[in-house]
Amino acid sequence: MKILVTGANGMLGQDLCPILEDVGAFVIETDVDTLDITNAEQVKEVLSDIRPDMVIHCAAYTNVDKAEEDLKTAELINVNGTENIAEACGKLGITLVYISTDYVFDGEGVEPYTTEDMPNPINNYGMTKYEGEEAVRSLCEKHYIARTSWLYGHHGKNFVETMLSLADKPELKVVDDQVGCPTWTVELANGIIKLFSKPYGTYHVCGSGFTSWYGFAKEIFEQSGLNVNLHACTTDEFPRPARRPKFSVMDNGGICRNWQAALHDYLELRND
After folding, report:
1. Which residues have CB under 8 Å from 132's CB, separation 6+?
2. Are 221 and 163 in contact (CB under 8 A)?
3. For residue 103, what are the CA distances in angstroms to 51, 191, 262?
4. How far is CA 167 from CA 7, 99, 160, 226, in A?
5. Closest listed residue to residue 146, CA positions, set 54, 76, 217
6. Do 265 and 187 contact (CB within 8 A), yes or no?
7. pLDDT reported for residue 272
8. Model pTM?
9. Looking at 125, 130, 152, 266, which residue is catalytic?
10. 125 an active-site residue?
């Protein structure tokens, strides 16, 4: 299978591409320097020339807080860019995998969200990613939408590395009233591959189980053998430009492993 990956230089892309190769795919890695997804003509030209069997669309504007002040850029990449990819894939009969987010939900629920639940984003990032989902559904019949959450990986800035870098602080406060599903990029990559044998549609590809950011930090330090003066705080004590869902837990249908087990493997690899 010939698979083109957008955003291949990102945190997910750098884990996904070698894993795809390991299962026998011929991978074409693209990033903004080789494929500008906001350029509709270039997208059509590249996909027409390469004719991949599948496009995995990882490229995205992911700065949640900055999207509040720069909605134009977030829309250009997450909405217009995705429309360009989806339209080209639809016309050429290419299967499209679109990476979406738990932030399409408002977080007012108390049970894990299923793919049947109606999105209602409460920040600009979530809104643009949901509009991207809608573009994929309307423009490309052969599609998978993979919603993920609280992503971390060895090839990018993430919560795990931030916590470890702050471990020597005299006191560390972490928000305890936002709950979600931590997901290692390797788990997401393996989950995406599992989709290939499933019917087209929307899936939740995130770590099994859930925790708060405080609970996530506590587990990071415990598994790392670090004694940290960690305290729980509220979202109100740590204001950010973008509102976050309070409860963005998703039911993944068993696609990915327990989040604690995945974190253990991440930390083991990190220390090798």
Report:
1. 60, 78, 79, 82, 83, 98, 100
2. yes
3. 32, 19, 22
4. 31, 31, 11, 7
5. 54
6. no
7. 81
8. 0.97
9. 125
10. yes
